[in-house]
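Researcher: Re-running this chain for the archive, since the previous output was lost when a drive failed. Same request as before.
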Amino acid sequence: MKKIGILFILTLLFACNDEHLERFPQSDITEKNFFSNVDDLKTYSYQFYDYINPSYWDRPSDNTTVEKGSIKSLMLGAVTSDNIGGWGWGQLRSINYFLDNYKNAEGLPEEISKYGAMGHFARARFYIGMVKTYSDVPWYSHVLNTNDEEELYKGRDTREMVVDSIIADLDFATQNLTNEESKVMLSKWVAYAQLARFCLYEGTYRKYHAGETDLHVTKEPAYFLNKAVEAANAIMQSGEFAISTVGGPDESYANLFNGGANLAENPEMIMFKEYEDDKKEHGAELVLDFENGISRSMADSYLKLDGTFVPKAETEITPLNDIFTDRDPRMKQSLMMPGYTLPGRNSPYKLSLGKTGGYGQIKFMPKEEDTHWDGYMTVHTDLPLYRYAEVLLIYAEAKAELETLTQNDLDLTINLLRDRVGVGHLSLNPPVDPVLDAQNPGITTSQKAELLEIRRERRVELFAEGFRYTDMMRWKQGTVFEKAQQGIYVPSTGLVDITGDGEADYFISDDGSNQPANLPAGVTILLANSDDSPLYLENGKSGHIMFKIEQNGLGTFQEPQYYYRPVPSSEVLLNPNLEQIFGWN
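Model: Regenerated structure tokens:
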């Protein structure tokens, strides 16, 4: 069994992604015949860019309706160590192979160190994903050989040791990467942004998950929060970046995501990913209402133009056609307003209410019509990977957690983001929004009021960029997934206009019996509150759209267990030293 285990693990550790093979010589690649010069290092490093990909939605999270995917399966007890996937190490093997051999190349020392820094950056990102998923994991800094039985069968290293190693890799990257002219290339500023991002994550994770028995850590949260501030400040003081205002308050935010801005020349981009028609495309055309809508919770997060929050009493009764009035312009640049038309189309887009129930997402929907709309992965707009706005949010949040936030800090961060869209400034000691307070339990900092608004700003500014789930996990908000999300508000059953043209688009019926004899052309019937309907209205004949599949509960989010995932049982069978933790045994 032991020999079989070694062979199986080696298969995982030595696996390599086939799509990269065409970039290398077809003969055997060895440290002797390949890693001989800087060009070899450059060629090998191409694969590191394939490991960094953007996101264009927030699934799963409280920003979306209905579809909860793996989280829903988790809470219903359907995820076990016997059926879970993951635990792949092929990417790490490729990275460590490079790090074991890059110093053999001949060339300028600074060039060799630059490419080495790319390997350290890639390894840090790999392990960040592993820590977020499993917490304690084995740390491998070199490629394993068949005779490395002790390493092959080692147990988990502590989270403390792995996190320290991640930060060491990122520190190396900040010191050895360069200030690249091209924003599609890894640079020292990308490394600083990743360091700030991870240190904020780890500092807040340790703070809000303190006391978990299997969280094997010793350093205090403040250590990481201070490092997050330092890394973010390095970027802020560099003078290399600024918040983009191209297009003015009504377009500048959206232009970062819909192809309206040249990201190569945009001052906010620290790094972005290039796409090209018919060659390298993505699937952002699916965000509008492919599987889920955007939740009421997300829509209610947007402030009024003067910087004040919308009272809950207003959001309880505001229909779709009115909710965008006098709101933060990022709302109408992110969510579909009535009357929205797809590029190249003439009639307003009609949301699939029966499927998603919520608001439509237009953030990341292409602005131009030279995009194929029929099919999957057909969009070629460039997408941000690291942008200056996130750095400002990291700085402000870490300072508030450290209880050192000043008005000057707010003016250099949050208020720059609000200035972009013309929203009123945030000041120290703001009034507390009771809804926001209830959504964010467990805050202990003396600057709680400011932190709540910084979290709101983060949710709004980084909406659909893939941060929300991780934020919920680090803030220990997993139980939010137990609550059914709501969609748009419907004043009453009957004919409903959602495209804003004054003509009915849907007939929402109680049970089908009150359907008029002659429905206008193009009107879709939705049954509410009947046995055959997937949806219902929260108040019976009015209210926010909700879904029957969630009516009887969504399951239980077991804390702390569900903040982590188990190692597949097949791996534990091969290596019993990989003990399950956080109750997954």
